[in-house]
Amino acid sequence: MIHFLSALFQLLGQALWLLPIGVLGMFRWAMWLAKRIPALFYRPIENDYNTTATIVTPVYNEDPVLFRRALDSWIANGPERIIAVVDVTDTSSMEIARSYPQVDVIPIDIPGKRPALAVGVDATTTDIVVLVDSDVIWESDVLKKLKMPFANPKIGGVGTRQHMYPSDGIKPTLWERLADIYLDIRYSDEVPATTRWGMAVSCLSGRTAAYRTHLLQNLREPFLNETFNGHPCMSGDDKRYTSLILQNGYRTWNQLNACVYSTFNPKFRGFVKQRIRWSRNSFRSDLRALWQGWVWRYPYLAIMLIDKTIAPFTLLIGPIVLFVAIILGNWKLVLILLAWWLISRAIKIWPHLRRRPADWLILPVFLAITYYMSLVKAYALFTINEHKWLTRAVAMVDGKAARVSEASQ
Prior knowledge:
The protein is an alpha/beta fold and 409 residues long. The chain has a single domain, classed as Spore Coat Polysaccharide Biosynthesis Protein SpsA, Chain A, CATH 3.90.550.10. It is 55% helix and 16% strand. The strands form 3 sheets. It has an 8-stranded mixed beta sheet, with helices on both faces. α10 (268-292) crosses α11 (299-315) and α10 packs across α15 (363-382). It is globular, with a radius of gyration of 23 Å. It starts with a helix and ends with a helix. The mean pLDDT is 89.
């Protein structure tokens, strides 16, 4: 009897250790299913709608080979006009853009991506303006598919399906492969779900997004003069445009059959810096939307924003339990946790593993990075008032975007 009670108390003690992670695990799976199920019912819009379109690309120190490939792919889509807004210090890109008769070049001496976008939008006279990063390569039918959702007058902005393009054009590094996994997660769950339920995608990625031109032109001032906690914002232009479109009563849509390809930083340091910048931008935009209240006009999106805000911190419970189990020498629990994490991550990124079977080999690395990214996001939240590009030589100085060389002076 004594041995039985002792075993029972020991079992209850282990159960108490597992209770917090079990409850949080059930919550996380519920939120994943809340995205995955509606995502299964997503279908891209297909019709014969056509209208005029201009491509606007802000250019700053772009890789010449990649820039030419991008320009060739856009021209093949047959837009009415292509506008390249090139930083005056980037003479190489200026020369490349001017070598194409289909491209109108606008030099700009104001540093920063936002002013360049605003200048390009102001110069647009077509019904649709497509904002594109200068390293993005399109498939041949992207523009045609981007136009289709605009048959619905309620839709103000349309995004694309993005894929990773190796920076060397041949073989991706480990960090590029991990970036590709994160892309597949976003475009398998969150994006199709928020598109299907409510037509309210929280961010039409700046790599390629189309908008009604008159909307962006009317939103010029709030776009250029965005602040957070009294600090002018520099990056996060795509989140800002998307939020302003939704805030003004229009819907946002993602055409997941319109595929584009973009490079990602191939090194660990650059990979992390990009995530810090993106996380800061998301926190600023999402917290503001929740505080201002307009996002509650899109209930499903509001719930997803709340979940994205708290998710990084709930994930940290798992490593804490693992650390305690190691300290106590409970190796059975350690093995169970590690095995379950690998299985659960494989299930959640199954669409990617089916597309890229070789990435089964980096699943343990992805698992570790997932928890590391929780710390990165926590750092981004606690440094939310820092406005640095981190991967480009531009920063906010005295409330204005400045090149790093100028900032150092």
